[in-house]
Design brief:
This protein has 203 residues and is α+β, with helices and mostly antiparallel strands. The chain is built from 5 helices and 9 strands, in the order H-H-H-E-H-E-H-E-E-E-E-E-E-E. The chain has one domain: Roll (Nuclear Transport Factor 2, Chain: A), CATH 3.10.450.
Length: 203
């Protein structure tokens, strides 16, 4: 099985496998602003948001990651992924994305619906995370309209003790959205990730 497909399969198992406690994005604070006491900077620009995204992933910090995502967040899957995993559909919504991230970031192994063990991830590293184009406005005809977007070249490594390292390489189109927020005593634009389109290599 291709490495990318293996990672997607693992992600979907994390999504679909039974769990004693299922995270709900409606739990807790829904203001979309950083939790007091967190170390990440206020996302006052698109670039700071993307730096925070990298930090959350590499620290496997679920609470920080959750705060970065807009309530309307979606992941747009490639056609090949949809064909390989037809039960998942064309997109992942916020609750599905967060459920995968919550389980993945714990580093704990899980059992798939057939009872087979799926190894946990011990660390995540961004070997490459380079912006290809400047931020631009998405058009009404875009897959995610009325947002800001940029294309990134990425290489992500997912380490699993005792198992092969999973590698995802290629392009991801990130979409972000800003809103007014009171921060440090003044009105500023607060940016959140509203979606991503998977354009990574299928081989």
């Amino acid at each position: 099985m291709k490495t990318k497909s293996l990672l997607l399969l693992m992600a979907f198992i994390l999504l679909l496998a039974p769990a004693g406690c299922i995270f709900s994005p409606d739990d807790g604070d829904d203001t979309g602003t950083p939790t007091p006491g967190t170390d990440i900077p206020f996302a006052g620009s698109e670039d700071i948001l993307m730096t925070n995204f990298r930090t959350a992933y590499e620290n496997m910090d679920f609470d920080t990651y959750r705060d970065l995502l807009h309530p309307d967040f979606i992941t747009i899957l490639q056609t090949s992924t949809q064909e390989e995993f037809p039960d998942v559909g064309a997109t992942l919504d916020l609750s599905e994305e967060l459920r995968i991230a919550e389980r993945m970031f714990t580093g704990d192994p899980v059992n798939d619906p057939n009872g087979n063990l799926v190894p946990g991830i011990s660390s995540i590293s961004f070997q490459n995370f380079d912006q290809d184009v400047t931020w631009a406005d998405s058009q009404p005809s875009d897959v995610i309209p009325n947002a800001r977007f940029a294309l990134y070249q990425v290489v992500f490594l997912f380490d699993r003790p005792g198992f092969s390292t999973l590698r995802v390489e290629g392009q991801i189109k990130f979409y972000v959205s800003g809103r007014d927020s009171l921060h440090a005593g003044r009105n500023q634009t607060y940016w959140q990730m509203v979606g991503q389109q998977d354009l990574t290599d299928s081989e």
